[in-house]
Write a structure and sequence with these properties.
Layout (H helix, E strand, L loop, with lengths): L5 E3 L12 E4 L9 E2 L4 E6 L1 E10 L5 E8 L4 E8 L9 E2 L11 E4 L5 E7 L4 E6 L10 E4 L3 E7 L5 E6 L5 E6 L10 E2 L6 E9 L5 E8 L7 E8 L9 E2 L8 E8 L4 E12 L2 E12 L8 E2 L6 E2 L3 E4 L5 E9 L2 E10 L2 E2 L3 E6 L10 E5 L5 E8 L5 E8 L9 E4 L5 E7 L5 E8 L3 E9 L4 E6 L3 E3 L4 E9 L4 E7 L5 E3 L2 E4 L5 E11 L4 E11 L30 E6 L3 E3 L3 E8 L3 E9 L6 E8 L2 E8 L1 E2 L2 E2 L3 E10 L8 E8 L5
Length: about 650
């Protein structure tokens, strides 16, 4: 099954629209985030393939960058996937007649994605950004001498790009928010030092943290991780040591910024233990450009560790994941940084094969609510490599790993979580060709919208309730209603009558096939019917021969109102079925939304009991434009008017033939 947006029902009408609250409920204990199958192939290449970076926008749109060969050159490629849809055809950003690197990606709060990549020889730095139609702007060259290009985007769309030139110096360039003009480049690292692998992250105050690997001076063999900070509107600080300068490798830096502006850096540091060189994962922190803390060991000191990946939730809890090997077996390890420091590391998976273990380390991401998803490539005793995935809840409790892809040549896993807790994972592999593959982790319930429920009613009235239900990635399960009086119903569109007066909390719960749930609530106030006045006694006979009948002494009431269709398309019509307590003139006003709403009015004289009024897209000389409308019904006689009843109606465009 290809992922599609699954829907149940459309908005139906009630006796007046109630204000409602739609709440997404995290999966309960019985619901486990589930990986969709089968996996998708988002790009196919003729020679070689690799995945580099992935970002997810605020609406869940994902972009994945990769590289692959066209038979003569390596291409810089980006693939895009909208929530619930298949992957769009990949877009090649680099020129077809030169080699290009896999792009670095960033996305802002408005959902615009940005890419930088290296192409040509000598290598140069290039830039493009996504367009609303799913494409990309024409490439723009930012630097004639640039490699290891990287980018970060602020929530407001302010951009900072960094790269290394052929003299091993780092440079940055900026494009302020709302501007199409780039600033002049600024040199970040000093002359004579070998700097590479730059990382950029923006904090919530508009400041930017830079982190990179450095050898100082060139040829001296002293390795370190360096960092610098630039406050919003300011200049870069003097670079400082993040790791200890040692004649031992410091490599594979990673960087994450928590919501309060704390920068957490991690890297692989070689050390000498009992005369043997081993690799450890070390970390350090800095707050809003302040001094970095002393490095601390995160991995087991008796093992060799590989690159670390870091991610933060909305509360500032950072999760780290890395691999360790001891006695020829690799373990996937994680720990969390809270206000009291790093927790004890736990193992979430193993790779019992050769010393190569997980070929490309482990990648993870964290949702705002603290849920975590991780992906890695594991190798067994037969040298077969499989893509594995695991998830954790906000408390840090991990599931058992599951196999996402048993391809014998999986590499380069990346994973990104959307704001609502779903995740998109991608990796490269070889089947009959070189491919980039992807899977989705469905960790959230269905989306509920357009809840239609009456706000007021009378006892005994049959009321209509409906809701629009959609799920981005999975099939839907049941939709259940609880009316607050002990009664329940199943389905996206149901009816119910309340036997007693009172205020009733009505709740609808939608579930997908994996047990993820979402609920919406509304309140219905039910009153007892107004008593029918006793008839006036006939006066005592008088000499007057004619008896004058007693006039009607009450205003009409609308006992029920219902549209047989919630939406209409010309020339079809909806039938408004009314039940009146007495004869009355009925006025039906149809009012649209927007600055210049369409309006139409129908007036009918109707008898007591049940009557029908036809409503179409053309009423009299007025034509209703496509859109959503409120149908307001009022009955009037010589005594007074009924309470207004409001129904929901949607007019859709006619089918062109």
């Amino acid at each position: 099954m290809n992922p599609i947006r699954h829907r149940l029902g459309l908005v139906a009408a009630g006796l007046g629209l109630a204000a409602t609250a739609v709440v997404t409920v995290p999966p309960g204990a019985s619901a486990t985030p589930t990986w969709t199958t089968p996996v998708s192939e988002l790009a196919v290449f003729a020679s070689g393939a690799g995945v580099w970076r992935q970002v997810v926008g605020p609406d869940g749109t994902a972009w994945t960058s990769s590289w692959g060969g066209n038979g003569s050159h390596q291409l810089a490629v980006v693939s895009r996937r909208s929530p619930g849809a298949d992957w769009d055809p990949p877009v090649t950003l680099s020129a077809a007649d030169v080699d290009g690197s896999a792009p670095e990606l960033a996305v802002d709060a408005g959902g615009t994605a940005y890419a930088v990549w290296d192409q040509g020889w000598p290598s140069s730095t290039w830039f493009a950004q996504s367009t609303p139609d799913g494409g990309w702007t024409p490439p723009l060259q930012l630097a004639e001498d640039g490699v290891y290009s990287t980018i970060t985007a602020g929530a407001d769309g302010a951009l900072t790009v960094a790269w290394k030139d052929s003299a091993y110096r780092l440079h940055t360039i900026d494009r302020p928010a709302g501007s199409a003009t780039w600033t002049d480049p600024v040199q970040l690292s000093p002359d004579g030092w070998a700097s590479e692998s730059p990382l950029l992250r923006v904090d919530g105050h508009g400041g930017v943290v830079a982190l990179w690997r450095q050898i100082s001076p060139i040829g001296a063999g002293i390795f370190m991780v360096e960092g610098a900070y630039r406050a919003a509107g300011g200049a870069w600080s003097t670079p400082t040591h993040v790791s200890d300068p040692l004649p031992l490798e410091a490599a594979n830096p990673d960087l994450v910024i928590t919501p309060d502006g704390t920068a957490v850096a991690g890297w692989r540091q070689d050390v000498v233990v009992d005369g043997a060189t081993r690799s450890r994962v070390q970390t350090a922190t800095s707050v809003l450009g302040g001094a970095w803390t002393d490095p601390s060991d995160l991995s087991d000191l008796a093992t060799d560790a590989r690159a670390v990946d870091l991610a933060s939730d909305a509360e500032g809890v950072v999760t780290a994941a890395w691999t360790e090997n001891a006695a020829g077996s690799y373990a996937i390890r994680t720990a969390r940084l809270t206000g009291s420091g790093w927790t004890q590391a736990v193992t979430i998976g193993t790779s019992p094969g050769s010393a190569y273990g997980p070929a490309d380390g482990v990648a993870l991401d964290v949702a705002p609510d603290g849920r975590v998803a991780a992906i890695w490539v594991a190798e067994d005793e037969t040298f077969s490599m499989s893509t594995m995935g695991a998830t954790a809840d906000a408390s840090g409790s991990w599931t058992e790993p599951v196999t996402l892809d048993a391809d014998a040549s999986s590499t380069n896993p990346v994973i990104t979580m959307s704001p609502d807790g779903d995740a998109v994972a991608s990796w490269a592999g070889v089947t009959t060709s070189y491919v980039v593959r992807s899977a989705v982790l469905d960790g959230t319930g269905p989306v509920l919208s357009g809840l239609a429920a009456p706000s007021t009613a009378e006892t005994g009235d049959t009321l209509d309730f409906a809701v629009d239900v959609a799920d981005t990635w999975s099939d839907l399960g049941e939709v259940t209603w609880d009316f607050g009086d002990g009664a329940t119903a199943v389905g996206p569109s149901v009816s119910h009558a309340f036997a007693a007066a009172g205020s009733y909390p009505v709740q609808v719960v939608a579930t997908d096939v994996h047990g993820n749930t979402t609920r919406a609530t509304a309140t219905v106030t039910v009153a007892a019917p107004e008593p029918t006045p006793e008839p006036t006694p006939t006066p005592t006979p008088t000499p007057t021969p004619t008896t004058v009948p007693t006039p009607t002494v009450s205003a009409p009431r609308i006992l029920s109102a219902h549209l047989d269709k919630a939406r209409i398309r010309a020339p079809r019509k909806a039938r408004l079925e009314l039940r009146l307590s007495g004869a009355a003139t009925v006025r039906v006003a149809i009012t649209g939304a927007g600055r210049r709403p369409s309006r139409a009015t129908v007036v009918r004289a109707l008898p007591a009991g049940t009557s029908t009024v036809a409503l179409g897209a053309r009423i009299g000389k007025r034509t209703l434009r496509p859109g959503r409308y409120v149908v307001t019904v009022v009955a009037t006689n010589d005594i007074g008017s009924s309470k207004a009843v409001r129904l929901a109606l949607r007019v859709v465009r006619p089918v062109r033939r």
